[in-house]
User: Which sequence fits this backbone?
């Protein structure tokens, strides 16, 4: 039986989770995520425990357990002026931070410095903090897919999923595309998302990001699909956070918000017979 | 000799520092502070090491050492959804945090829980972190004047000033007005600001905040005066931070920004023969 059948749908159903990354990053990201859940087509999000606006989003998560809420495990911080780092004391996880005590900006600096035992310790602390706050997480995923850089780190991530009985988001093609290792990944006995739908910078540059989302929904295949977006408002705060970083920048995030709260998106889901599913359903049968 | 004379001015000069609190709190606060320094009448600010936007402001401080930059020692967090806490691991300073690991919201919860040795440890860490970042601080002051709640805590603050050879901001009347202790303060051998000029909620509520600032400049007395303001933009981020807290809320902070970058303010300073001075000058003769 494939995932669709296990969930009670016909074998060739186009399953989709529409998932908002980066909740907790900023007020703008939080409020756009909340609106996209309440009024849009987004049905899942994940929360960054390391960020200053975690508390606001955690409060929403506790009072709105009807939405999928994952933990967006964080080991990198890509922004120029807005910094975050481990929730553990940096003396406990020194290999995860730069000279200022913040996470490295790139997956490659992270990969070249991070010691696996410290990665495991920090990610465990992030999950535990979310649990202490009363969040009931539905899944795990990873900021900038930093857990995908080597098979060893991906195994830590998969093990955390087993330990906490939470499905983990993995797309084989995406992990392999960002890999920084020559070693082979072991995807056996792992639930894999068949297709990862995500925006591309080339489309954004051409002003085609919104259209690319519409097309992706038109071309969606049967199987387990995940649409990853980053809804936020193109406001002063997000412009400050994403300065000099148009890739997944504030303008991009506004487009994400606009499309996934649009009537066009709702119609596309209907026209294409797309079946929205949740991590919660997957958790039950996993 | 009084302070004016020590600084080379006539005895009865109206000395004034126009000081912006809370830099580092948010992008809005940072950018408004920077604009108020560069284009307005503000000539001093202090930075919150515990906050998410510290890095952006610290970068400004390092590249713009011409402005007074103090360390805004932080032991409380008054906001509902936007939280910060110690920079030390909370296991080292457990008496400073609530059940979620953040600073207490009120001076009174802080006073009832905080152990003096932990206060000293955390404040030292905040100063050390600023120094490590390459900031050359010109003075110390305190968020919500939490160091003023008891004579014992005020002494820690004064001692830190001596240790780091930094003048500390103290106004006797203000400290006594927020005191939570029956014991007497010892202000001997302490440089005191004669008058603290600050906005009041009653004026804000009546729509008279801006006028109260203009009047305060008209009525300024000779001596060592400090105007405390909190410039920020009344934008989505600051509205999120200051939600349900109109006292020093985002609307208030926009008024602070508007007045202290206005021509009216500049004229008032001139008309009233007010002499702007800096903590840097005071540091030299202290």
Assistant:
């Amino acid at each position: 039986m494939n995932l669709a059948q296990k969930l009670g749908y016909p074998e060739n159903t186009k399953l989709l989770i529409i998932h908002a990354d980066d909740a907790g990053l900023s007020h703008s990201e939080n409020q756009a995520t909340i609106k996209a859940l309440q009024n849009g087509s987004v049905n899942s999000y994940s929360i960054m425990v390391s960020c200053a606006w975690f508390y606001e989003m955690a409060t929403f998560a506790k009072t709105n357990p009807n939405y999928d809420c994952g933990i967006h495990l964080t080991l990198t911080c890509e922004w120029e002026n807005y910094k975050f780092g481990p929730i553990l004391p940096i003396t406990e996880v020194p290999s995860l931070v730069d000279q200022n005590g913040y996470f490295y900006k790139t997956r490659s600096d992270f990969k070249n410095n991070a010691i696996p035992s410290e990665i495991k310790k920090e990610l465990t602390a992030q999950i535990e903090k979310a649990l202490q706050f009363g969040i009931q997480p539905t899944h795990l995923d990873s900021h900038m897919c930093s857990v995908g850089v080597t098979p060893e780190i991906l195994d830590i991530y998969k093990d955390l999923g087993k330990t906490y009985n939470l499905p983990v988001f993995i797309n084989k093609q995406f992990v392999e595309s960002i890999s920084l290792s020559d070693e082979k990944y072991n995807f056996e006995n792992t639930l894999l998302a068949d297709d990862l739908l995500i925006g591309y910078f080339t489309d954004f540059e051409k002003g085609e990001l919104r259209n690319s989302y519409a097309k992706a929904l038109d071309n969606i295949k049967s199987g387990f699909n995940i649409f990853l977006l980053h809804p936020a408002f193109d406001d002063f705060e997000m412009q400050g956070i994403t300065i000099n970083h148009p890739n997944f920048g504030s303008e991009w995030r506004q487009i994400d918000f606009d499309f996934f709260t649009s009537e066009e998106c709702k119609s596309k889901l209907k026209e294409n017979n797309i079946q929205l599913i949740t991590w919660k359903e997957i958790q039950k049968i996993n």
Summary: Residues 116-132 of chain B form the longest helix (17 residues). Chain B has 13 helices and seven strands. Chain B touches chain A through 28 residues (CB under 8 Å). The first strand of chain B starts at residue 14 and ends at 23.
